[in-house]
């Protein structure tokens, strides 16, 4: 046998080491490095922070949605007055302490199938330094 041959596999040695030694080294080197772990934790931290910044926006949207559903439930479609619906929305929004949108932003339309309330708005939250997160909300409620 030649000097540069692995006795185990009868093949040339890799980098001066036998294949058995190379595979043993690879078994010992399995796992994640500290730098890799730090990068993964950093990315997970940024995603978690973005989620924490977005939670108040979604909670506010849930209050708006609940108020629109409650205001629409107070009226019948054939007898509903847009002014009365708007006043009801203002009352519900004052109780829920909603300040991101105004009752005047709600589009009240009367169609063949009855009245609908539609609200589309954007809400932003600052994220890091001069980076903000922008969310678009769109809600349509049919007056029964």
Rounded radius of gyration (Å): 31 Å
Counting DSSP H or I runs of 4 or more residues, the number of helices is 3
- Poorly predicted runs of 5 or more residues: none
Number of domains: 1
Give a quick account of the main beta sheet: strands, pairing sense, barrel closure: 3 strands, antiparallel
Mean pLDDT: 85
Major beta sheet, strand line-up: 1-2-3
**Relative strand content:** 15-25%
Question: Could you estimate the helical fraction of the residues in percent?
Answer: 40-55%
Head-to-tail CA distance between termini? 91 Å
Question: What general outline do the C-alpha atoms trace?
Answer: elongated
Q: N-to-C SSE series?
A: HHHEEE
Got a strand count? Answer: 3
Say what oligomer this is: single chain
Alpha-beta content class = alpha+beta
């Amino acid at each position: 046998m030649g000097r540069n041959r692995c006795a185990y596999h009868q093949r040339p040695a890799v980098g001066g080491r036998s294949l058995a030694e190379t595979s043993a080294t690879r078994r010992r080197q399995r796992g994640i490095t500290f730098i890799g772990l730090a990068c993964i934790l950093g990315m997970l931290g940024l995603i978690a922070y973005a989620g924490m910044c977005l939670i108040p926006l979604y909670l506010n949207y849930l209050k708006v949605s609940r108020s629109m559903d409650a205001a629409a439930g107070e009226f019948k479609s054939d007898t509903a007055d847009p002014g009365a619906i708007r006043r009801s929305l203002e009352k519900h929004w004052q109780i829920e302490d909603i300040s991101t949108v105004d009752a005047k932003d709600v589009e009240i339309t009367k169609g063949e199938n009855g009245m609908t309330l539609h609200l589309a708005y954007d809400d932003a939250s600052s994220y890091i330094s001069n980076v903000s997160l922008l969310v678009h909300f769109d809600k349509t409620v049919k007056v029964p």
